[in-house]
From TrEMBL:
Keyword Transferase belongs to the record: yes
Location within or outside the cell: Cytoplasm
Job of this protein: Catalyzes a salvage reaction resulting in the formation of AMP, that is energically less costly than de novo synthesis.
Protein name per Swiss-Prot or TrEMBL: Adenine phosphoribosyltransferase
Alphabetical keyword list: Cytoplasm, Glycosyltransferase, Purine salvage, Transferase
Family: Belongs to the purine/pyrimidine phosphoribosyltransferase family.
Domain Phosphoribosyltransferase span(s) in chain numbering: 33-149
Gene Ontology, cellular component aspect: cytoplasm
Recorded metabolic or biological pathway in which this protein acts: Purine metabolism; AMP biosynthesis via salvage pathway; AMP from adenine: step 1/1
Organism annotation: Dactylosporangium siamense
Domain of life: Bacteria
EC number: 2.4.2.7
Top-level class of the enzyme under EC nomenclature: transferase
């Protein structure tokens, strides 16, 4: 089965969550299915190459699940990109607009060695605000973004253009 079909079959649309008018794409059934989750992780690794990155950054919170699996499978480490106030040491931070709100993301200022190649992962690319903030944070913290993968891209929200010219790799794009 194509990976895009596998993802499509496991996404559950939840209308009006967390706010009226938002169609939430719930990937929990995908995470809960061992073979499907494994196929998704392998597809992300295949896209970037196991030697194409030095560390994996995951965006809180569902990105952590993906980042940890990709990192473990390739023998790399994980760096969490967290919501405001969660990290205990000095951070760099960025505020940004969400599809459904406003938020601040932070990463430890010493999270990356200079020039370290960072693969950034998250579950869903919506408006691209989260991704744009995260990619900027990685660079400000000294990392070099070597790739960005999501499981699902909501193409109609134009998130891809927010992070251009950096590419986005999506296992499934819905329009
Ligand atoms: P955005 O900054 O608009 O691209 O939003 C991306 C972040 O918010 C990701 O971390 C997603 O987990 C979450 N998100 C935004 N919109 C949705 C949606 N419709 N369904 C599921 N998650 C979403």
């Amino acid at each position: 089965m194509e990976i895009s079909d596998l993802v499509a079959g496991k996404v559950v649309d939840v209308p009006d969550f967390p706010k009226p008018g938002i169609l939430f794409k719930d990937l929990m059934p995908l995470f809960a299915d061992g073979p499907a989750f494994g196929a998704v992780i392998e597809a992300i690794i295949a896209e970037h190459g196991a030697d194409g990155f030095d560390v994996v950054a995951g965006i809180e919170a569902r990105g952590f699940v993906i980042a940890a699996a990709v990192a473990y499978a390739t023998g790399k480490g994980v760096v969490p990109v967290r919501k405001a106030g969660k990290l205990p040491r000095a951070t760099v931070s960025a505020s940004y607009a969400l599809e459904y709100g406003e938020a601040v993301l932070e990463v430890h200022e010493d999270a990356f060695a200079a020039g370290e190649r960072v693969l950034v992962v998250d579950d869903v690319l919506a408006t691209g605000g989260t991704a744009a903030a995260t990619l900027g944070l990685v660079e400000r913290a000294g990392g070099q973004v070597s790739g960005f993968s999501v499981i699902l891209e909501l193409g109609f929200l134009g998130g891809r253009s927010r992070i251009a010219p950096r590419p986005v790799h999506a296992l499934l794009t819905v329009s």
